[in-house]
Write a structure and sequence with these properties.
Radius of gyration: 35 Å
Distance between the termini: 87 Å
Strand content: 5-15%
Length: about 525
């Protein structure tokens, strides 16, 4: 006898064998037990979730001579003939190839005849969304008022393409994607029956790739078993068959990207291509890896959210501390766009390499979410240059250091952050409104002593007196406020103000609320030295 594929060999023959659709199975069994059987059903859901299988079991159950708890007995003549495909009571129609008006007219003529055996004629119309508009219209009347011995079951993967007039005449059942755990457990049971040695980690990866489809999972498993026939099927074997990449490779790839090591990133890509890895799958898996990182960074109970091993969990938590949130958003956006492009591309390697180079060099992009990453890249270069012996010390208008000791309250020649400076900070009294006014009057000079990035954003600033003698710096947009409001930048400004006026002034950074005029609401520091200050309650 010829070999039978796993998904055909182990197709469920009774309701109890159907996995992951308990909400539908329970409803149908209750209907059969209570003899409340409908005349038309619409089964919707993604591929491989059991729509046609459940339709066939339901057809057997309503015709079974001795149903057991709402399920077919599988032993009576009707159950055996339907299972063998010889029953005249169950008619399967593929709407993809029989989608014309004439096909529906044939059905309308056939339903006038009673079944020769059993209680019901069941019409299973697969891919019902493929019916033409004329065929849908021809089906309407029969679907609304069929003879009492006829049941229609329409199965579709695209419920949005079914006319509302058809939907309103059917009981609508939505088949869910099957969970990874359910698919894995089912494959374990089948491998026990088949006496195949398979690593559990391999089964879990197959279940993840199947994306909620039991049929896809069994087809992939069949393929992997055939490739390593007679051997133990391991996780690495599955990766090799599918052209997929292990998470350790993604970890190395991400660390190279964070180091902005373009050459190292391209070396990893070259190795993967030489191993025959499939680039579309690589892009999808790396996007999923970034998604896991995002969850690890934002969720407190990460173990309840992510389905990964303890070792991978530790790795994700470590790497989530190495990357900023805005960087993750940007990386996910770039790879989501890449996944769509790779579906129709002929030069997949080029597109993948360009996407990874974008991650390493944010200056290539002008999108708003890349600006913070570009600023971060500049700051990293400055820090690296300082570490190599180059000093970038902010200069005042008179050429002296921004933290020099000639101004009141300065720290002498001591470097910022020394114990001497900290002691001086402790004895400096807090500012009163007159002192805040003095800070405003000197703000132009103070801005000139700030670091380059901060100085650029402060050119757009307006000043206002906040509550409790705070100096409020108001900027025209959220991005500017985020940059100026960073803790290190606020400390830098407070230090410059202390050095200039000899008082501690607390700063508050905001941006203009939507609908308010920026020019009319706050004081323009560029227009006048002797300015009025708006006092907020």
């Amino acid at each position: 006898m010829s070999y039978t594929a796993l998904y055909r060999k182990f197709r469920p023959t009774e309701f109890e064998e159907v996995k992951g659709q308990d909400h539908i199975i329970t409803t149908l069994q209750n209907q059969i037990r209570a003899n409340r059987i409908g005349h038309a059903y619409l089964f919707c859901g993604t591929r491989g979730t059991g729509k046609t299988t459940v339709a066939k079991i339901f057809a057997k159950a309503v015709n079974c001579e001795h149903p057991v708890n709402g399920s077919p007995c599988g032993e009576c003549a009707m159950c055996r003939s339907i299972a063998a495909g010889t029953s005249m009571n169950v008619i399967e129609i593929d709407a993809a190839s029989n989608n014309g008006v004439d096909n529906i007219r044939e059905i309308r003529e056939e339903v006038t005849y009673r079944p020769t055996e059993g209680k019901y004629k069941v019409y299973i119309i697969d891919e019902a969304h493929m019916l033409s508009p004329g065929a849908h219209n021809a089906l309407l009347k029969t679907l609304e008022e069929p003879p009492e011995y006829v049941i229609f079951i329409l199965a579709t993967t695209e419920a949005n393409r079914i006319p509302v007039t058809i939907k309103s005449r059917c009981q609508h059942y939505e088949f869910k994607r099957i969970s990874i755990e359910t698919i894995t457990d089912r494959m374990k049971d089948l491998m026990t029956v088949e006496q195949v040695d398979v690593e559990e980690k391999a089964l879990r990866y197959i279940a993840k790739v199947a994306d909620g489809s039991m049929r896809d999972a069994l087809s992939i498993l069949d393929q992997c078993i055939a490739f390593y026939l007679g051997q133990r099927l391991t996780y690495d074997n599955v990766l090799e068959v599918l052209g997929a990449v292990d998470t350790d490779v993604f970890s190395r790839l991400l660390r190279k990207v964070l180091d902005r090591d373009v050459a190292g990133v391209l070396d990893i890509v070259d190795d993967l291509i030489m191993q025959g890895r499939e680039l579309t799958q690589l892009s999808a898996d790396f996007t999923w890896y970034l998604r896991n990182l995002l969850l690890a960074k934002t969720s407190d109970n990460i173990e309840d959210v992510l389905d990964v091993s303890t070792e991978n969990m530790r790795q994700l938590q470590e790497e989530s501390q190495m990357i900023e949130m805005d960087m993750l958003y940007r990386y996910i956006r770039i790879f989501a766009e890449l996944s769509n492009q790779l579906k129709f591309a002929t030069q997949k390697r080029v597109l993948l390499e360009v996407a990874l180079i974008k991650l390493c060099t944010p200056a290539m992009e002008t999108d708003q979410d890349s600006i913070l990453d570009r600023i971060r890249a500049v700051e990293e270069k400055l820090d690296k240059a300082e570490a190599e012996g180059f000093a970038f010390r902010p200069q005042g208008e008179d050429g002296s250091s921004a933290h020099g000791g000639d101004r009141p309250g300065g720290a002498g020649n001591g470097a910022p952050g020394t114990d001497e400076e900290e002691m001086i900070r402790k004895v400096i009294p807090a500012a009163v409104p007159e002192d805040v006014q003095e800070a405003v009057n000197n703000f132009r000079t103070i801005v000139g002593e700030a670091s380059g990035i901060l100085r650029g954003y402060l050119k757009k600033a307006r000043l206002s007196l906040g509550g409790e003698n705070r100096l409020m710096i108001v900027l025209p947009d959220r991005l500017s406020a985020d940059v100026v409001g960073r803790e290190d930048h606020v400390k830098e400004l407070e230090g410059l103000i202390e050095a200039r006026i000899g008082r501690r002034v607390e700063l508050e950074v905001r941006y203009v609320e939507e609908g308010r005029r920026f020019e009319d609401t706050f004081v323009d520091i560029g227009q006048n030295i002797n300015m009025e200050i708006t006092v907020e309650d």
